[in-house]
């Protein structure tokens, strides 16, 4: 059964007297427990598509069914309720509150859901444990590395047990090694049963998913199944071996 089903989705923005068409008759299905990447150049419509799938915006035309429910014409408050229950977001810029510790950032979706304080704390610490940051629960964002801050953001996305995790350029502000560690985490979460939809402009990152959707000028131009996704943990291991060999070679030259 499809978790996400789009039929003839269009989106038109009214900018004064101008009409800008961002999406044109998009048809797409994403199954439960898929790991999908959306790729496209700036202006291709990928951000608009993600906003609609993530219930941050409504289509101008067409039908969007999420988990069997037509959400195309819901009110803002109804969309907000669905976002809080079914969707977890991970952003390129982390979007963490700078003056509160990690676990307080992670518990925010539970505050909006009116979960009791004791349960919020328990679930926030558990989510941080899932991303290997339980020992950083009391640290503020400015006391964490970029990769650790992104892990806090991922824990926040997980804490409400969403149906889907949306990741918008999650490695865009990270160096290559840290980016790979984030992809290794996403692959582990996918292996545990998470449905992940990720936007990226980097093919090296996209190839860690099992499916790539290509967008151009508001239309889907390609839908590729990846038979052998790149394995981030293996890439990290090779990177470590290469750095060790280079260090050994440098030491031998100067000995």
**Total E-strand runs:** 10
Quaternary organization: single chain
Structural class: alpha/beta
> Largest sheet, order of strands side by side?
6-7-8-3-9-10
First-residue to last-residue Cα separation: 63 Å
How many helices?
A: 8
Q: What is the class in the CATH system? A: Alpha Beta
Write a structural description.
This protein is α/β, with parallel strands linked by helices and 255 residues long. It has one domain: 3-Layer(aba) Sandwich (Rossmann fold), CATH 3.40.50. Helices cover 39% and strands 27% of the residues. It contains eight helices and ten strands. The strands form two sheets. Strands 6-7-8-3-9-10 form a six-stranded mixed β-sheet. It has a four-stranded antiparallel β-sheet with strand order 2-1-4-5, with helices on one face. Strand 9 (211-216) and strand 10 (219-225) form a beta hairpin. Helix 3 (102-112) packs parallel to helix 5 (146-158), helix 4 (117-130) packs across helix 5 and helix 6 runs antiparallel to helix 8 (232-253). It is globular, with a radius of gyration of 20 Å. It starts with a strand and ends with a helix.
């Amino acid at each position: 059964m499809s978790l996400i089903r789009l039929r003839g989705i269009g989106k038109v923005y009214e900018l004064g007297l101008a009409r800008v068409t961002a999406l044109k008759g998009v048809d797409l299905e994403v199954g439960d427990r898929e790991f999908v990447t959306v790729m496209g150049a700036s202006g291709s419509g990928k951000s608009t598509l993600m906003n609609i799938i993530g219930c941050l915006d409504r289509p101008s035309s067409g039908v969007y069914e999420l988990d069997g429910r037509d959400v195309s014409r819901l009110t803002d408050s109804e969309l907000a309720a669905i976002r809080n229950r079914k969707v977890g977001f991970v952003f390129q810029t982390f979007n963490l509150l700078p003056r509160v510790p990690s676990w307080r950032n992670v518990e925010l979706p539970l505050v909006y859901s009116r979960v009791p304080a004791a349960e919020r704390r328990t679930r926030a610490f558990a989510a941080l444990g899932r991303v290997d940051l339980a020992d950083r629960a009391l640290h503020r964002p400015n006391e964490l590395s970029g990769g650790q801050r992104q892990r806090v953001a991922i824990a926040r996305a997980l804490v409400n047990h969403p149906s889907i995790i949306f990741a918008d350029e999650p490695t865009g502000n990270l160096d290559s090694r840290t980016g790979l560690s984030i992809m290794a985490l996403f692959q582990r979460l996918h292996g545990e049963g998470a449905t992940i939809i990720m936007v990226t402009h980097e093919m090296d990152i996209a190839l860690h998913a099992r499916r790539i959707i290509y967008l151009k000028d508001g239309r889907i131009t390609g839908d590729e199944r990846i038979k052998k996704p790149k394995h981030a943990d293996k890439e990290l291991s090779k990177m470590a071996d290469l750095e060790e060999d280079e260090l050994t070679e440098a030491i031998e030259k100067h000995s």
